[in-house]
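Supplementary Note 3. Input sequence used for the single-chain structure prediction.
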Amino acid sequence: MARIDQTPFEVSITDLTHDGRGVARRPDGKAVFVAGALPGERVMASQTGRHRSFDEARTVEVLDAAPERVAPRCAHFGVCSGCALQHYDEGRQILAKQRVLMENFERIGHVEPERILAPLVDGAWGYRRKGRFSVRRVEKKDKTLVGFRETDPRFVADIRECHTVMPQIASKLPELAALIDGMQARREIPQIEFIAGDAQDDFSGVALTIRHLAPLSDGDRDALVAFGKTHGFAIFLQPGGVDSVHPLWPESPKLAFSLPQWNLEFLFRPLDFIQVNAGLNGKMIQLAIDLLDPRPEDRVLDLFAGLGNFTLPLARQVREVVGVEGEAGLVRRARENAAHNGIANAEFHAADLAKDLSSEYWMKQPFDKLLLDPPRSGADVVLAQLPLKQFDRIVYVSCHPASLARDAGFLVKERGWKLKAAGVMDMFPHTAHVESIALFER
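The predicted structure, written as discrete structure tokens, is reproduced below.
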């Protein structure tokens, strides 16, 4: 393949891609996606990639800046891949995500909501309570890097700070990198997962899970324990798969987060899925319940239920709720959380919702309302199997607008439902991730 000509060229930006890059056109009409550029801007760009239908480039110089351009808060923006939109006014970010959702409805689902919900937002900084840092020993720099991947995913970003991760974690990044660099196993540690719940008596509520590819020496284990004690972090080790995770210090740390408006406390394990943005999570649950409009006599089906994030708040308001989740460990934790909170009207079942469900006990039960929060792949398989006529409302929480749009098209075009309302929720400010919610009525 011929080398890419990196000579800077001038383009005018007309739109934003789903991943936060500016859209422009070459003189020959070929699309070019420009990292670091915003709609309405004129920039000098340098090509970084070539494909049949589009080119990729990065902004070298902004010639005419959009009024919505702001100075990124983070010194690592543009190198670290953790954020894509820090240069874009916060209020405009969520409107751009709303446009992505509506374009997906139109282009993929061929549907349009009767009402667009007001965007749901919360604090835009220091919100990320769960994530994964990559770790790499770089001999040329004689240091160990701990951070997110660079925009070129072959490399780990050399970051000293992060403004989207919770401050009690982000502020310790240099010390965490120094800790790993001083360990004998520094070349055998590929990643560190972090998760934060509510602070407890004996530690901060933050847990770090150290993935290690070789056994740790006593000295390395002692160094990790000392770090945990100094900063009030629980330390877990992961020598193999998910089931190998075990606490190093303290012996049995309590990981939990609360939803005070429903008088609930959720216990979780360090690699469990919990919503990344705690402040927005509470607002999202309330919005989902408001849209579902549950009555005290209702039976509700909650699919992709996880730890019971929606199931248990719903149980406070309805006769019965049934949660179904594919991961058996999360189902166990959901049942434990129901018991922990004294909830007797919620039951949980483990089932792969992307397979044949005809033999499942709960599929034969009557329900009044349906709530679902599927992964990126969406809910097309389970929706095609459910007896949808029994529900009078469906609330669909989505982390991927394309799969939501596809499933909305199925419900509206093939099953006769109405897309009554839809909107976006800023679960991941400063990233291009689009979280959304939709209400369907018969």
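Residues 90-109 form the longest helix (20 residues). The first strand starts at residue 9 and ends at 12.
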